[in-house]
Design a protein that fits this description.
single chain, disordered N terminus
């Protein structure tokens, strides 16, 4: 079983994030009320990216309200890639709004090449082309 650190009120950050992500109208109110008290961890961003029902709304909210706190890691890209409902829209949103902050690794480029359409790959190259290495692995994933 996974252990989570406890906040001062006894609720773990992960439990709090899961509760917050469970319903769009509630998290909008929660972020408005609690603002900086809601910790935006990689797990929170991954949960939003992987949420096929409300992920786009949640990610838009996170970027609008706490954009500087949203880290776009390989795990976030992987979560968006696994989101058949809105993953492509979420990845496009992340590249549009925070393209300069996407952590570019060979694996991230492989995920984008293999899981998203040409439009998303083109967006990545337009935003971060100088940082993208097209390796044999990337070409294999893109085929």
């Amino acid at each position: 079983m996974r252990k989570h650190s406890r906040a001062q009120n006894g609720v773990s950050e992960v439990d709090d994030a899961i509760d917050w992500l469970s319903a769009v109208p509630v998290e909008v109110q929660s972020l408005d009320r609690r603002g900086a008290d809601v910790q935006i961890t990689e797990g929170v961003v991954q949960a939003a990216a992987g949420n096929s029902g409300s992920g786009m709304k949640i990610m838009t909210l996170l970027l609008d309200r706490r954009g500087a706190d949203v880290q776009i890691t390989e795990g976030v890209v992987q979560a968006a890639a696994g989101n058949s409902g809105s993953g492509m829209k979420i990845m496009t949103l992340l590249l549009d709004q925070r393209g300069a902050d996407v952590q570019i690794t060979e694996r991230v480029v492989e995920i984008i090449a293999g899981c998203f359409d040409q439009e998303v790959m083109t967006l990545l190259l337009n935003r971060r082309g100088a940082d993208v290495q097209i390796t044999e692995g990337v070409l294999q994933y893109g085929l």
